[in-house]
Amino acid sequence: METLVSAVSLHEAVEQIANILVFVFGACIGSFLNVVVYRIPEGLSLIYPPSRCPKCSHKLGKTENVPIFGWLCLRGRCRWCKTSISSRYPLVEAATGIYFLLIFWQFGYSIETLGYWTFVSWLFALSLIDFDTMTLPGSLTKSGLVLGLVFQGVIGWQIGQTEGTAQKLMFGIAGAVLGIWLLEIIAFIGSMILQQQAMGDGDGKLMATIGMWLGWKYVLLSSLLACALGSIIGGGAILLGILNKKQPMPFGPFLALGGVVTLFWGQEIISTYVNLFFRF
User: Which phi-psi region, left, alpha or beta, contains residue 48 (left: φ > 0; alpha: ψ -120 to 50)?
Assistant: First the structure.
């Protein structure tokens, strides 16, 4: 009995350590995403110069660069010039750590976990850039699309080598093509209703990336969720006077959120829908 208890305790300890390591790793990736979100729209290198204060250009020290805790220790201000540092930095780091944990809990020690960590990181970076600049950089949408194709190939090889790889590649490509078509249709209808351009070119590429990673069935759900969330939040912002009817609103964050919700709960949502409307 004591041996069994010890084994259970050891297993729980290992799981707790794994959870902590995953969260820390995710937070570190979130710290890098902050760099990506700031530098790519500015056309700057992601490597040089090292992280520094945007006001006085002071290079951040090792302790100041620690995700979340570095910002807390500095109390949200540069140690040298006292310029305020946005609270979004630690929030992005914490959110990325939480996303990584959720994916780890759902997919465990698997290739899917590594792949979906990458997928969510791309979505997070793209949605923040779109929120800030109303653009979706082609360098990120294209690289996300290619990585999604590689991911499908690896998963397919695990399932059935050559045959499985071919099936998964077609699965992803079909999702990407459908994603582009869906956004073109939605953009056309939106433009007819609003009498102005409803979406940018980057939205279709982002939807194609989501389709490549999740497949044709889930890209349908992702687009529906994105449109529903965009309509609700956008309509609420107009009613509250935050936006006017002609003011553009970034759609990338809604596409990304639809993709993340589908990744975690897509099967449950589809099953619930089928049970409610097609059980007879």
Answer: beta
CA distance 140 to 157: 26
Domain boundaries in the chain?
1-109, 135-280
Can you give the pLDDT at residue 107?
Answer: 94
Calculate mean pLDDT across residues 133-154.
93
Residues paired with residue 52 on neighbouring β-strands, in sequence order:
59
How much is the pLDDT for 20? 94
- Identify whether the C-beta of residue 131 lies closer than 8 Å to the C-beta of residue 250: yes
> E strands along 112-206, which residues?
none
Tell me how far apart the alpha carbons of residues 176 and 141 are, in angstroms, rounded to a whole number: 12
Q: How many residues does the chain have?
A: 280
- Please say whether the beta carbons of 70 and 94 come within 8 A: no
Contacts of 180 (CB under 8 A, 6+ apart): 204, 205, 207, 208, 211
Strand partners, 77: 84
Q: Read off the pTM.
A: 0.88
